[in-house]
Amino acid sequence: MLTIGFIGAGHMAQAMIKGWRDLAEVRQIVYAPNSGAAVAEQLQIEAVASIEETFMQSDLLILAMPPKALAEVAPTLQMLLMLAPQKIITSVLGGVSISSLQAALGSQAQIVRTLPNVNVAEKEGYTAIAFAGTLDAATRGAVFGLFTYFGRADELPEEQFGAISALAGSGPAFVAAFVNALSAAAVAQGIESEVADKVALQMVNGTMKVLSKHEQTPTEFAHSVMTPGGSTAAGWSTLESEGFAKTIAKTIAATMQKNSEFD
Ligand SMILES: NC(=O)C1=CN([C@@H]2O[C@H](COP(=O)(O)OP(=O)(O)OC[C@H]3O[C@@H](n4cnc5c(N)ncnc54)[C@H](OP(=O)(O)O)[C@@H]3O)[C@@H](O)[C@H]2O)C=CC1
Ligand SMILES: O=C(O)[C@@H]1CCC=N1
């Protein structure tokens, strides 16, 4: 039995717990100062009462608290790592590099830096992974296997984590905003909100399935929808003249800027 212990029981931890919950031979435990017990009860896993207990019981410890909480949690972990230096510490902390984690926890700490997204809850996630030099090949393979269980995972250079975090980590929020904007626009044209939500979701789901077949690029696909001289082209031209792509580029840049401030 492999025990995975979470420090932090928020949105990201909960998504991972859901994504892994049907894994045979895996037990999940969670610690969070305020919400740990309630989240554990809701997800039918075990709550533990302290960082120390989480560490001692875990084979794989996941740091899933906000980046700024690292300074608070690190002294306890650093002490525990002196007793058990081989413990694997997997961080999901956005923007926090392996060298910062090692500065906080000890230079020999067995650290995996990951950047998953909340879609792991439905096994449709994306995770970027980087390993500290201290990790051996067998451990890297085992951790990689866990993350591919709930979606796609790639080992990437840490320099790429800022852009990937904006694209894949924050991206689900931006896609949800787009779905919401489509639905709201339809409501403004007289469609009932429940119907508009349902239609927008079905349309986006269907579009993603078709695009995922990679038979056309997104631009080729868009042009296949635009009947020459038709209505889609009129809408497309407004999308362009109103600066849709520029807004998205600015959104990604602002996300990356904030992310870079956590290290
Ligand atoms: N949400 C996302 O889509 C993604 C998040 N991440 C990363 O995941 C981490 C958590 O984010 P998210 O789940 O969104 O945040 P939430 O605010 O939803 O959850 C934060 C959790 O951390 C706990 N926490 C806060 N301070 C401490 C502390 N000092 N010791 C132990 N636990 C603490 C909170 O406990 P309590 O509830 O008891 O107060 C809470 O359970 C962040 O580092 C973020 O960058 C990475 C990729 C995607
Ligand atoms: O908003 C955040 O900072 C985290 C990182 C990626 C998604 N959520």
Automatic annotation (TrEMBL):
It is found in: Cytoplasm. GO terms for cellular component: cytoplasm. It comes from the Bacteria. It holds the Pfam family F420_oxidored. InterPro entries: 6-PGluconate_DH-like_C_sf, NAD(P)-bd_dom_sf, P5C_Rdtase_cat_N, P5CR_dimer, Pyrroline-COOH_reductase. Transmembrane segments: none annotated. Residues 3-91 form the Pyrroline-5-carboxylate reductase catalytic N-terminal domain. Pathway: Amino-acid biosynthesis; L-proline biosynthesis; L-proline from L-glutamate 5-semialdehyde: step 1/1. It is an enzyme of class 1 (oxidoreductase). GO terms for biological process: L-proline biosynthetic process. GO terms for molecular function: pyrroline-5-carboxylate reductase activity. It catalyses: L-proline + NADP(+) = (S)-1-pyrroline-5-carboxylate + NADPH + 2 H(+); L-proline + NAD(+) = (S)-1-pyrroline-5-carboxylate + NADH + 2 H(+). Keywords: Amino-acid biosynthesis, Cytoplasm, NADP, Oxidoreductase, Proline biosynthesis. Residues 158-261 form the Pyrroline-5-carboxylate reductase dimerisation domain. Its main location: cytoplasm. Its EC number is 1.5.1.2. The keyword Amino-acid biosynthesis applies. PANTHER family: PYRROLINE-5-CARBOXYLATE REDUCTASE (PTHR11645), PYRROLINE-5-CARBOXYLATE REDUCTASE 3 (PTHR11645:SF0). Belongs to the pyrroline-5-carboxylate reductase family. Catalyzes the reduction of 1-pyrroline-5-carboxylate (PCA) to L-proline. This is Pyrroline-5-carboxylate reductase. The gene is proC.
